[in-house]
Amino acid sequence: MAAKVLRPWVATTIFSRLWRLLMGGCCIALFSLGALLMSLVWFNLLLIIQRDASKRRRLARRCISASFRLFLGTARLLGVLDYRIDGIAALQNDHGCLVVANHPTLIDYVLLASVMPDVDCLVKADLLHHFFFRGVIRAADYLVNSQGKTLVATCRQRLLNGDTIMIFPEGTRTRHGSAPILKRGAANIAVRCGCDLRVVHIHCSEQVLNKESRWYQTTPTKPFFTVSVRERISISSFMTKEEDTQPIAVRHLNRFLQQALTPELL
């Protein structure tokens, strides 16, 4: 009797995993092909259509955001994943601040940028050599972590212009079951630029697209991504007037972010 009850459930589970495997591969192909076509065709057309660099950058970022919404909507429609973003209005109303998030999966940036049409982002220099994404990074004029001594000055200018900069302080994806290990880049920029921070926490119900998994490894149930937009942190509570106390403020802020971005289950 138990076997008869289990058979439909087992068949459904196997079919679901096979379907998500096939459709997941299609979504990855769609994402990569879309990035390539935007880099080779659309962004080159923008160079001709829009001569003003700032307007061209804004238009490129809005196109990227729209393409991410299309990708996520397609993945949801095909049953590959589902997601919820709590606090979208807060993200969209933020200006001149850093958005600081944990980094459990490959699509964390996609989730956030999909609802932030004009967000800036600090990216790894290695991505400039990525065949599919280097054109996207250049068109959007994202900040690159290899800019060295000019990075803080560039961040300060963009923040003064009202830009919101997205940063994943870990620099790479979190290992499952481990607390995030933060580099001091985000705290250093916030302190030296004197800007506020918006904390965002990302959680995935399944172990997919993380440091230890591959895209073709499916889980028994469909992954559900939850993005929680949390408090805006005033940098003034970490600052003092003395210039030589900035390194102390950076350490204190980084320690605070470490606690804010660590999952409650750890």
TrEMBL record:
The keyword S-adenosyl-L-methionine does not apply. One of its GO terms (biological process) is phosphatidic acid biosynthetic process. The keyword Zinc-finger does not apply. Coiled coil: none annotated. GO terms for molecular function: 1-acylglycerol-3-phosphate O-acyltransferase activity. CDD domains: LPLAT_AGPAT-like (cd07989). Keywords: Acyltransferase, Membrane, Transferase, Transmembrane, Transmembrane helix. SUPFAM superfamilies: Glycerol-3-phosphate (1)-acyltransferase (SSF69593). The chain crosses the membrane at residues 20-49. Pathway: Lipid metabolism. Residues 97-205 form the Phospholipid/glycerol acyltransferase domain. SMART domains: PlsC (SM00563). This is 1-acyl-sn-glycerol-3-phosphate acyltransferase.
